[in-house]
Amino acid sequence: MRIGLVCPYSLTMPGGVQGQVLALARSMRRRGYEARVLAPCDGPPPELFVTPLGNSLPTASNGSVAPVAPDPAAQFRTIRALWDEAFDVVHLHEPLAPGPTLTSLLLKPAPLVGTFHAAGSQPAYTAAAPAVRWGAGRLDVRIAVSDDARELAERHLGGDYELLFNGVEVERFARATPVPTDGPTVLFVGRHEPRKGLDVLLASVEHLPADARVWVAGTGPDTAELKARFPDERIEWLGRIDDDERDARLAGADVFCAPSLGGESFGVILLEAMAAGTPVVASDIPGYAKVATAPGPDGSVPAAPAAILVPPGDADALGRALTRVLTDPDCAAAQRALGHERVRPFDMELLAERYLDRYRQLLGTPIG
C-alpha cells in the first residue's frame, strides 16, 4: 500500500501536527508500508521519506502562528508529487488549512482520509462556511483527535467524525539519554506567545526552591520581552531545540510544566513527558485535563490524575505544585508511575494500526 501523508505546516518548525505526521509515517514504514510525507520545509527535510514543497509563510491562527505554504509554487509541487507518487490513499492532516492539504483535497487523486486537530476557534470555517462544508464533503473518512476537535468540526462542517487520539512514540522517549542536571529542574517546551502561558511559569519561579532551575526551550514573539521581565539566573534559555535534544531534556528534567492558557486540542507533549518517565504539572484546561483523567483509546481511566493540574494563569498555584513534585520524592514517584500507565494505550504503534485498518476498509481490499 502506498500512503501519502500531507501536512500543511513546515516540518522544520516545531509543532504537534508535524510531530504526529512524521511519527505516523515512521511507524507505518516500520511495518513495510511505503508511506511518504508531503509538506513545506524551511530547510533540509527532517527525514528521507519527506517530499519538501517549499518554504512556509507564518500566518496567524487560533492565537498562534501557523507556518503554512499557500503560495502557487507550493501548490504546483504538491500536484506534481501527488501524480508522480500514485498513492493508494492520501491522508490529509488539517484538510482545510491553506496550502498543500487544501490543494490535495480539491485534486483528490486517491481516496482521502482527513484528520482534524484544531480546537478553539477557526474563523475561516465561519467566513467561508459553504466552501469549507463542500471541501469537507470530499473526504471519504473523517477523524478527529479529541472531543474538542470533533465538536469544532461537527459544528462548522457537519458530517460524522471518528475519534482517534494522537499517539506517542513511547519506546523512543523511554530510551532517551537524560541530560545531566545540577539540581531540581523544570522543563518548558513551546512557542513563546501568550497562549502558552510561559509568563505564568516564569512568575512562579520565585516560589520554587532556591536550588531549582528552569529550562525554557523554544522561541517566539515574546522571547525578548520575557527575558527582560524575568532576569532570574536560575532560568536557562535554550532557544529552539531539535527533537533529539527535546527527548533528552524531557528525560533529564525532574518535572515537565505545561502552563498553557487554552486553545490546546490535545496535550501530546504531556504524554511525551510521561513516556520519558517525567512527572507533569499542567494547566487545568480541557485539552490537558482529558489527557490526565479521561478514558483513553482502550477505555481505561487512570486510578488518579496522571498530571497535577492547576488553575490556568495562577502563578502561585503553579509554583506550589512544581515545588511539591521537586521536594516530595513520594509524590514524584507516584506521578511517574501514573504517567507510565497512562501513556501505554496512546502508543503510536497502536494508532498506526488503527489508521491502517481505516485505509484497508476504505480501499475494500487487504492491500499489503
Describe this structure in words.
The protein is an alpha/beta fold. The chain has two domains: 2-167 and 347-363, Glycogen Phosphorylase B (Rossmann fold, 3-Layer(aba) Sandwich); 170-345, Rossmann fold, CATH 3.40.50.2000. Helices cover 41% and strands 18% of the residues. It has 15 helices and 15 strands. It has helices at 16-30, 72-85, 100-107, 123-127, 129-136, 147-157, 170-174, 198-204, 223-229, 243-252, 268-275, 286-293, 315-327, 329-343, 348-363, and strands spanning 2-6, 34-39, 50-52, 57-61, 64-68, 89-93, 112-116, 141-144, 162-163, 185-189, 213-217, 235-239, 255-258, 280-283, 308-310. The longest helix has 16 residues, at 348-363. It is globular, with a radius of gyration of 20 Å. The mean pLDDT is 93.
Core attributes:
368 residues, alpha/beta, Rossmann fold, 2 domains, 7-stranded parallel beta sheet, 6-stranded parallel beta sheet, 15 helices, 15 strands, 18% strand, globular
Distance between the termini: 5 Å
- CATH C-level class of the largest domain: Alpha Beta
What is the number of helices? 15
How much of the residues is beta strand, in percent? 15-25%
List the helices and strands and how they pair.
Elements lengths: L1 E5 L9 H15 L3 E6 L10 E3 L4 E5 L2 E5 L3 H14 L3 E5 L6 H8 L4 E5 L6 H5 L1 H8 L4 E4 L2 H11 L4 E2 L6 H5 L10 E5 L8 H7 L8 E5 L5 H7 L5 E5 L3 H10 L2 E4 L9 H8 L4 E4 L2 H8 L14 E3 L4 H13 L1 H15 L4 H16 L5
Parallel strand pairs: 1-2, 1-6, 2-3, 6-7, 7-8, 8-9, 10-11, 10-13, 11-12, 13-14, 14-15
Antiparallel strand pairs: 4-5
